[in-house]
Write a structure and sequence with these properties.
The complex is a heterodimer of chains A (435) and B (584). Helix content of chain A is 37%, strand content 19%. Chain A is α/β, with parallel strands linked by helices and 435 residues long. Chain B has 584 residues and is of the alpha/beta class. Classes of the chains: A alpha/beta (435), B alpha/beta (584).
Chain lengths: 435, 584
């Protein structure tokens, strides 16, 4: 049977036009990009985690779901301060239960933003964010700027679905009605496809943005900025003029901005530039979020507890102080004594000393496939694949929530979804704590 | 027995039922108000002694920004709003934080502590309705509903330009069902679409770019559609030019547009046995009047323009409005009126967020602090109170702060004190900038509202205006058992001691929802089930079919597919459709 309008659970693009056909042991996927197609293949892959395991005396062994959940609950209930890493490759519904357990136990809850667009969010906390839903740029933009992002490879359908190629209401001829600029130290395929490539020197985003801001304010930037950034001042001036003369400028930023030197200050000044640009023409900025639901955790955590990531419940109420209550910092400071890692290969993505400590403390991992994190875990709970095997919610790159429906069922009679698994776990934790 | 309770000997204020401070017993059985409980039922029922206390129906807030994308933008961008204002978890309650933009759990608890039991989210962008519902589902203690933002919707503007009201009406009814929302919200009609190009509109007859419809076309069209469909509440209007000196005139002129349209709410519900007619008769509900009532021509000669609007309201019966009071202190301004917030950014340089929503609407968010030392803010404080005190018939007004625009809803008790006590107002005049008395008429206004009038502007009229008075805002037999008991002795009240009024309304002695005590003296005792209301409008299948053809052909301008556009039931806590029988 062919299923249409399936939502892709890979990147923040949340393409909602994927078509799949599930046959005997194979899956045929239409409309998805390479990344999307690869993820849909997981549903029939041979390496899928199908049995819960625990580590006993250094040996990994298969156990029943009940035993795995019991042991997980033991680890969490006996922990003084557990870390919950609620990864972005699952639904808000599952993350919500995770946050509730973290609150209940007085633990720390964090998600991928902490090692991804966290600085972008912190930049927004300094400056605010003038943005829009994705369709505004599609319909109106006559100038698109990709800054610190290689959209063609990191969000392959962004240019064709949201940014550059689609025929919008006013941008009727798609690509031909838009000027495309890329700001990137690398000559990426995105840069090659652009009308103008500002190939700045690495880690000089702040200086370049600052110079552009100066020009926008009618002042002359300091001449040294040419040598620092590698961009001639006349080119900067030309860029600002192009922006001012456009009817609608859509800027898309990636980790090249928020993870190069300057971190959240880069985003802050970019957002300030955008705010001022709105005194001349319409200008919006949006982040290309990497994982399907990385934006969702920020939204969810903000509305449930007031802060977008790095929430410490140790005092019985939510606290947020990036650098103190964030995942890498609580691990490096050895400030947590157990960890629950869901739908994110944490061990693979954090600094070695933090990863080493994570491997030392009791760890539970919920995931769909083997990875360094599952290898380092004491309990492994197999994951259900969102948008394929269960329904739920992702937040798209522009913070629009999308509701996804499955096209097949969870392979496990014991659980319907990661949300279900976490609810079962929470019930066991509560029973142990309240016994 | 669950949901069964007797509240004895309180001074009862139930304006819809014409009860004005009489000492009465209120009985609730299985969550609904009844005439009495039998002796057997009394045995199992909880009994509350309300002697010397004031008893009102549960509070109803008909305009508050508590859930959804822009509220959450406010939360996310304002950690400084949260650090100092938090609540620890308890065995039954979640923790939370946030002063002007509280997290969902905290927001629900704080409303409940003040005796409020029903709250309407003021703006739901259709494409982001799933988000709004997700948050409303998480807000505890309150029955809720949301207004769908439609004043700059491409489909509607196109139909209005073509003059095809029938298709426009079919579209509205489809959208209400699709996104499970309750009423029509019209924000800066025609102007927000222009904001897509960084522009605005400034006059009622100014056509917007490309779509070429005027604010007048949209206000008239939506008001007509509203009554043609029989939606429970009037069209909810956020007028043009908000926040600009001199905007009171365009506001008054906007109110004139739907004057000839007759209110025809047509809901299929069981009505509580109120003595007054509990159905609305107005065709327009103006929101946050204060922000739309600026006088003068610039900030230099800024003054209150409230009287121009209230004079019109006093002499016409098709208008009801809420105040948008400014109680001083921290606020977060947030509205679907994107360009208005851009103006405030230019004015203040504060951090500013904006989200334009494709094909539909927009929004802006900005932190703001109202200072007693600031001349403009002081006048705004006076204006907010003028909007309520100048309207002679309390049934034409509703008390709000447009939370958190004028200030957070937690300041309501303070506003009640200003309304009830001239001394409270005079004491504030002493503290704030003299423009408050020079540029408004409030200083010479001596009216002091009675408890009955307070009950009208904080619950009865909010319920009647929104069309929920069949079950909310009254303690008549058949109504929902939502009750607030305040520690205010109606017979001994001294309005000069206004601090005691604030204390009384801040933490209700008891908040009762569906016959269950949920808070007592500011402590959360129970987390009740909650309902989410929406208008389920019946419409002819043919008109819907024709309209959907157009919608589908235009859907390519969205970035979400037609099939993934609707808001499924699962995002609502107890979805409760209000049946609306268009064209019966």
């Amino acid at each position: 049977m062919v299923y249409k309008n399936i939502i892709c659970p890979v990147c923040g693009g949340s393409c909602d036009d994927v078509q799949v056909e599930l046959k005997d042991g194979t899956i045929d996927v239409q409309n998805a990009c390479k990344m999307g197609n690869a993820k849909f293949q997981e549903v029939v892959s041979s390496h899928r985690l199908l049995k819960p395991t625990i580590r006993e005396n250094g040996k990994v062994k298969d156990v029943s779901w009940d035993e795995a959940l019991e042991m997980s609950a033991d680890i969490l209930a006996n922990s003084k301060r557990p870390l919950f890493f609620l990864g972005s490759e699952t639904s808000c519904e599952a993350q919500e239960v995770g946050l509730h357990i973290a609150e209940y136990l007085g633990g720390v809850a964090d998600s991928n933003a902490t090692i991804c667009h966290g600085p972008t969010v912190m930049g927004i906390q300094e400056a605010g964010c003038v943005g829009s839903t994705a369709g505004q740029a599609k319909n109106r933009a006559d100038m698109i700027i990709y800054w610190g992002v290689n959209a063609l490879e990191s969000m392959p359908r962004h240019m064709s679905k949201y940014g550059v190629f689609p025929r919008g209401y006013w941008a009727k001829k798609g690509r031909f009605d838009r000027t495309m600029v890329t700001v990137d130290p690398r000559k990426t395929p995105t840069a090659v496809a652009s009308d103008l490539h500002l190939q700045l020197k690495p880690n000089t985003d702040y200086e370049l943005l600052s110079a552009l801001f100066t020009i926008l304010n009618g002042k002359e930037p300091h001449p040294s900025v040419e040598e620092i950034t590698g961009i001639p001042i006349p080119v900067m001036k030309q860029t600002i003029e192009m922006m001012k003369e456009s009817n609608y400028v859509g800027i898309f930023v990636g980790l090249g901005v928020s993870s190069s030197y300057g971190k959240h200050r880069n985003i802050e000044i970019a957002l300030n530039l955008v705010k001022e640009m709105n005194n001349y023409t319409k200008c919006n900025l949006g982040a290309l979020r990497g994982h399907c639901n990385v934006a969702g955790f920020n939204q969810l955590a903000s509305y449930l507890y007031g802060y977008p990531f790095g929430i410490d419940f140790g005092k019985g109420y939510p606290r947020y102080n990036p650098g103190e209550t964030t995942c890498v910092d609580v691990l490096r400071e050895k400030d947590v004594d157990a960890a629950f890692v869901m739908s994110a290969d944490l061990v693979n993505h954090i600094p070695a000393d933090a990863a080493k400590y994570l491997a030392d403390i009791p760890m539970i991992c919920l995931d769909i496939a083997p990875c360094p994190s599952t290898t380092a875990s004491d309990v492994v709970l197999p994951g259900v694949i969102d948008a394929m095997e269960c329904d739920g919610t992702f937040y798209r790159l522009d913070n629009v929530p999308v509701h996804f429906e499955p096209f097949t069922d969870s392979p496990f009679p014991e659980t319907k979804s990661n949300e279900d698994t976490l609810k079962q776990l929470f019930a066991k934790v509560k029973a142990k704590k309240e016994a | 027995m669950a949901g069964t309770i007797a509240i004895k000997n309180g001074y009862v204020y139930d304006p819809l039922n014409e009860v004005d401070g009489e000492v009465m017993d209120i009985f609730i059985k299985n969550g609904k108000v009844v005439t009495e409980l039998s002796a057997a039922e009394m045995k199992d029922a909880k009994e509350i002694d309300a002697k010397g206390k004031t008893v009102m129906p549960g509070g109803v807030d008909s305009h508050s920004h508590v859930a959804g994308a822009k509220v959450n933008t406010g939360r996310m961008m304002r950690p400084e709003d949260h650090y100092k204002y938090y609540q620890k978890k308890t065995p039954i309650a979640h923790s939370g934080c946030g002063y002007t933009v509280p997290s969902v759990y905290l927001g629900g608890y704080e409303y409940s502590k003040m005796g409020y039991t029903t709250v309407f989210e003021a703006a739901v962008p259709p494409m982001e309705a799933r988000h709004t519902h997700e948050e409303m589902r998480s807000i505890p203690m309150l029955d809720m509903a949301g207004y769908l933002v439609l004043g700059n919707n491409w489909f509607l503007m196109r139909y209005l330009k073509e003059g095809d009201i029938d298709k426009a009406a079919a579209y509205v009814s489809w959208m209400m069902k699709t996104h499970k929302t309750y009423g029509i919200k019209c924000v800066n009609p025609a102007g927000v679409e222009n904001w897509g190009w960084g522009e605005n509109v400034s006059a009622l007859d100014e056509a917007n770019i490309h779509f070429e419809v005027t604010p007048e076309d949209i206000i008239k069209g939506l008001a007509e559609i509203n009554e043609q469909l029989g939606i429970p509440m009037p069209m909810h209007l956020h007028a043009n030019n908000l926040g600009h000196p001199g905007c009171w005139e365009i506001t008054r002129d906007s109110l004139k547009i739907p004057k000839s349209i007759k209110a025809k709410p047509n809901t299929d519900v069981e009505w509580a046995e109120t003595k007054m007619k509990a159905q609305r008769h107005q065709s327009v509900y103006l929101t946050h009047c204060q922000f739309n009532a600026f006088g003068g021509t610039s900030w230099r000669d800024f003054e209150s323009g409230v009287k121009g609007i209230t004079d019109y309201v006093n002499s016409n019966d098709h208008v009801v409005m809420d105040s948008g009071c400014v109680p001083f202190g921290d606020a977060t301004v947030m509205t679907g009126d994107g360009p208005a917030i851009h103006d405030l950014y230019q004015l203040t340089g504060n951090k500013w967020s904006n989200t334009d929503v494709e094909c539909e609407c927009g929004s802006g968010v900005l932190p703001f602090t109202y200072l007693k030392s600031n001349p403009i803010h002081s006048v705004q404080w006076a204006m907010g109170l003028e909007t309520l005190l100048y309207v002679k018939d309390a049934w034409k007004s509703i008390m709000t702060t447009d939370s958190p625009n004028g200030g957070p809803f937690t300041k309501y008790p303070q506003i009640i004190a200003w309304l009830m006590s001239n001394k409270a107002r005079q004491d504030t005049f002493e503290e704030c900038h003299k423009w408050a008395s020079d540029r408004s008429g409030l200083a010479s206004e001596t009216r002091e509202m009675s408890l009955s009038e307070i009950a009208i502007v904080t619950r009865a009229n909010a319920a009647r205006t929104t069309g929920l008075a069949h079950s909310k805002g009254t303690l008549a037999v058949g109504a929902d058992g939502d009750v607030a008991v305040y520690d205010i002795d109606a017979k001994k009240i001294d309005v000069n001691d206004y601090e005691s009024i604030i204390r009384g309304f801040q933490n209700a002695s008891y908040t009762i929802k569906g016959g269950e005590v949920i808070t007592q003296d500011g402590e959360i005792l129970a987390i009740p089930e909650k309902n989410t209301f929406y208008s389920d409008i019946a419409i002819k299948a043919d008109s819907e079919k024709e309209m959907l053809k157009d919608v589908k052909s235009w859907f390519k301008y969205y970035t979400i597919g037609f099939n993934n556009y609707p808001t499924p039931d699962k995002y609502l806590a107890n979805p409760t459709p209000i049946k609306v029988n268009a064209e019966r």
